[in-house]
């Protein structure tokens, strides 16, 4: 199976989303996702990036999405697999795993 590079992007902030009281913080979610995905999938084709929505962005697509988060009052953290949003607010591993499977990421042996 030919696996392409997959990028998992987590948009979030240090302060927990007002509607997500009791949920883990965005940075905690980012680290939790890396650990959970690393236990199930071969890590080689997966890159991770964390985007702090309260910081200026150098990449246009990140800046545009950060603006969308504030304009549409989206819940964060928001998780993307490549360019597909797979989670908003409290992420569900099942949904993220399905997206990784769709992208051909191989399971650990």
Give a topology summary.
Blueprint: E1 6-12, H1 26-40, E2 46-52, H2 60-71, E3 78-81, E4 84-88, H3 93-102
Structure, described:
- Pfam families: DUF1462.
- This is Disulfide oxidoreductase YuzD.
- InterPro entries: DUF1462, Thioredoxin-like_sf, YuzD-like_sp.
- This protein is globular.
- 34% of the residues lie in helices and 21% in strands.
- It has helices at 26-40, 60-71, 93-102, and strands spanning 6-12, 46-52, 78-81, 84-88.
- The longest helix is centred in the first third of the chain and has 15 residues, at 26-40.
- The chain has one domain (6-102): 3-Layer(aba) Sandwich (Glutaredoxin), CATH 3.40.30.
- Strands 2-1-3-4 form a four-stranded mixed sheet, with helices on one face.
- It has 109 residues and is an alpha+beta fold.
Computed Rg: 14 Å
Proportion in β-strands: 15-25%
What is the count of structural domains? Answer: 1
Share of helix among residues?
25-40%
The main sheet comes to: 4 strands, mixed
| CATH class type | Alpha Beta
In CATH, what is the homologous superfamily?
Hypothetical protein sa0798
Secondary-structure element order, N to C: EHEHEEH
The CATH architecture name reads 3-Layer(aba) Sandwich
Number of separate strands: 4
Report how far the terminal alpha carbons are from each other.
14 Å
Count of helical segments? 3
Shape: globular
Overall mean pLDDT stands at 91
Class by SSE composition: alpha+beta
**CATH fold topology:** Glutaredoxin
Low-confidence stretches: none
Strand arrangement in the largest pleated sheet: 2-1-3-4
Protein name: Disulfide oxidoreductase YuzD
InterPro entries: DUF1462 (IPR009190), Thioredoxin-like_sf (IPR036249), YuzD-like_sp (IPR038218)
């Amino acid at each position: 199976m030919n696996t392409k590079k997959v990028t998992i992007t987590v948009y979030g902030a240090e302060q927990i989303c007002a509607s997500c009281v009791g949920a883990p913080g965005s940075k905690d979610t980012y680290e939790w996702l890396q650990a959970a995905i690393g236990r199930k999938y071969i890590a080689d084709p997966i890159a991770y990036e964390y985007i702090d929505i309260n910081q200026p962005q150098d990449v246009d697509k990140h800046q545009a999405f950060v603006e969308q988060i504030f304009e549409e009052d989206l819940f964060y953290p928001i998780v993307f697999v490549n360019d597909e949003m797979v989670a908003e607010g409290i992420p569900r591993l099942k949904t993220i795993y399905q997206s990784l499977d769709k992208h051909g990421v191989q399971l650990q042996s």
